[in-house]
Amino acid sequence: MIDAPAAPPQLIRTATGATFRRLILEGAGPIVVEFMAYGCAHCRALEPVLKQVTRMLGSAEQVFRVNVAVDEELANSYEIGATPTLLMFLDAKEVGRLEGPRPVVASLLSAVVTPFSS
Hints:
- The chain is of the alpha/beta class.
- It has one domain (13-117): Glutaredoxin.
- It is 36% helix and 23% strand.
- 29% of the residues are buried.
- The model has no long low-confidence stretch (mean pLDDT 86).
């Protein structure tokens, strides 16, 4: 019997109110969290750019998404006022924030990496 090829790893994983503490606040290394909504046009525009940036980062940073429509309480606790909003965490502390669409790879890459390089 021939084994089926392994599924490629997810570039952007989902975090929920139930998993946020374990994945983000207790996670190791630099972590990026996109607070988004599936009905948000800016979020859809950001998606391919964020995936490209995630591929460029390799395993340097973990990238997660939180659906604000499903996890409204979590979004409120981080004072998310607009989607998409990216939060950068290091050692369970927010070290950076980027709000609104940034559909250019270079500016998004810089915004994501800079908080971790200081």
